[in-house]
Fold this protein.
Amino acid sequence: MSATIDVDDDSPVHPGEHHDHGPSDGTYWKVFWALVVITALEVSTYFWDVWFGESSWTFAVPLLLVLMVVKFVLIASVFMHLRFDSKLLTRIFYFGLALACIVYLAALAVMNIFTDNGNPWFNDPPPAVTPSAVVTGETTGGGMGG
Amino acid sequence: MTDVALEPVDDVEFPDDVHATSTGISNPKLAMWTYLASDCLLFGGLISTYLLYRNRPGNIPGLSGSDLRASELFNIPFTSMTSFILLMSSLTMVLAVNAVMRRDVERMRLWLVATSVLGAMFLGGQIYEFAEFVNYGLGYTSNVSASAFYTLTGLHGAHVAVGVLMLISATVYSMRRQLNAEAVETLGLYWHFVDIVWVVIFAIVYLIP
């Protein structure tokens, strides 16, 4: 059983040589507790409609999105070291993320997720089935394009 | 082993990387970040699919299936607990990386084992959740809503399972042979990404009605 770490000359990372650049264990614990508090706040929104009424969802949904982004950035910046590493890595990761957000927000918008124009195939509840509709095939569009 | 005195270089976290690559970033690390960026697109697609189909139970004309939706069966207190477990595993992972940077191999192993145990607990929770849903009659092919839900959370679970296997492999490897510190750091990046994806899934799929 070896209790050493291989540090060869070609290794791009030499343990023990750059540990001062990153955060300490104490910083990681602080970030962790911050994440725990945020998660607890997120979970509490599940009970808001009982505590404050149905209208509380108007505030809960934007708050959940903001808290989600804060947690995401905290983990990426501190735990994944983006804040302390090369800016190139930050650009690569957030470019992929931005691309995903743009592509899928556009796709969701095209598929009627944010609006209600009567397309029954994606966002809306399914149309009521009547025997005559089934027989004549009026509502069995069958395609995903609506 | 060598003992090299390093001078800080602008915008480069690991100065000795400059000698290894033109970007100043080691190739494995750059590859992992590129993979993670591409994985954003994969999970983005699955989350979007779930958002599109989550209100689509099985009573669509022309299709057959259950009227149940996964969102009707969510057990938020239970899922909150598994989310906390995954969050805790991110902390133990980053402590493992810090330990290996200090050449503290024993502690690194301890934190790696802790991370893999927490990851396995999360997986156990997900399997329990799936089993509960199936008991309620919501299978993978029950309706499009269920298929989208199982595909999204199942693929995330598969990522966690792969991560747990890699953590166990790294721990065992460190007992038999000398372990490169960068391997632990790169493994940590993967594990934190799995956590980050769950942060998004937990908020968008589970908490937002």
Chain A is about 55% helix and 0% strand. The helical segments of chain A are 25-44, 48-52, 57-79, 87-110, 131-136. The two ends of chain A are 63 Å apart (CA to CA).
